[in-house]
């Protein structure tokens, strides 16, 4: 009896995950990783996909490279991409890795001297249903050391967001404090890290590839000025704005604007972009952006002109204009 299409795809992905997992290196592989001050590490990267709210097919693939230890931006890239794979819990990598890998390959082709020596991934690594999350997948395929850093706890393999977990968080007194994320098997899959003194909420760090957990945690803390490490935090901010003003994903938002039905009847592109902007560091006082790094892209456009929103819903079959 033939399997349903989605189950057949999941079975195929499970085989591919198992095959790639055999290539995973869970340990330090670079000399800078063994040094207390990470001497020899000069460039750290951050990658993620941001979705237009209400559109689960188009996304903005983002890559930022920072200097280390200064954490100054050396390179940034945002590209509109179309995703062909569906979202399936536990198989996020098959949806996102191709675009993120292409961003790294593009940098290697055009400016190889700026290739990151380690990549922070906004997601999980070994802390995953089958111990092979997005950071592992990208690491193995790119060959680069990768670290998974998640802002929300993935409740998996017996790790739960319960009273015990809450008490462990309360016990984190200062930046750099951690506690292990232990699976039912007894294996430590990652660590919860209080990344700065000013933030009581931890991030969840796990190995992606070619780095040990202790080194991944130390480096994550070293890259944190706030709760989220700068390679990920800067990527999210600079995907919409740069120091010169509104830029980055505004170019992508304009493409989205042009793709809407009857776009010539909408407010001007400038007003559309103004209504779609958000950045805590931008001098412009603007409402919420349409961009989100929520994996499933389910959210509707927020605070965009009503005519724009209704036409966008019409395009997606969500209602009458």
Overview of this protein structure:
- The chain is α+β, with helices and mostly antiparallel strands.
- The protein folds into two domains: 5-238, archaeoglobus fulgidus dsm 4304 superfamily (archaeoglobus fulgidus dsm 4304 fold); 243-315, no CATH class.
- It is built from nine helices and eleven strands.
- Strands 1, 2, 3, 4, 5, 6, 7, 8 and 11 form a nine-stranded mixed β-sheet that branches.
- A hairpin with a 5-residue loop joins strand 6 (178-182) and strand 7 (188-193).
- It is globular, with a radius of gyration of 20 Å.
- Mean pLDDT is 81; it is low at 239-249 and 269-321.
Low-confidence segments, ≥5 residues, pLDDT <50? Answer: 239-249, 269-321
* Percent of residues in beta strands: 15-25%
Q: What is the total domain count?
A: 2
| Strand and helix order | HEEEHEHEHEEEHHEEHHEH
Helix proportion: 25-40%
The name of the CATH superfamily of the largest domain reads archaeoglobus fulgidus dsm 4304 superfamily
The radius of gyration is 20 Å
Q: What is the annotated CATH architecture of the largest domain? A: 2-Layer Sandwich
Structural class: alpha+beta
Report the span from N to C terminus.
45 Å
What is the residue-averaged pLDDT? 81
Overall 3D geometry?
globular
DSSP summary, beta strand count: 11
Task: Characterize the largest beta sheet: strand count, sense, and whether it forms a barrel.
Answer: 9 strands, mixed
Question: Could you please say which CATH topology of the largest domain applies here?
Answer: archaeoglobus fulgidus dsm 4304 fold
Instruction: Report the top-level CATH class of the largest domain.
Output: Alpha Beta
GO molecular function, one term: RNA endonuclease activity producing 5'-phosphomonoesters, hydrolytic mechanism
Pfam family, one: Endonuclease_5
Cofactor: Mg(2+)
Subunit structure: Monomer. Interacts with PABPC1; the interaction is RNA-dependent and stimulates ENDOV activity.
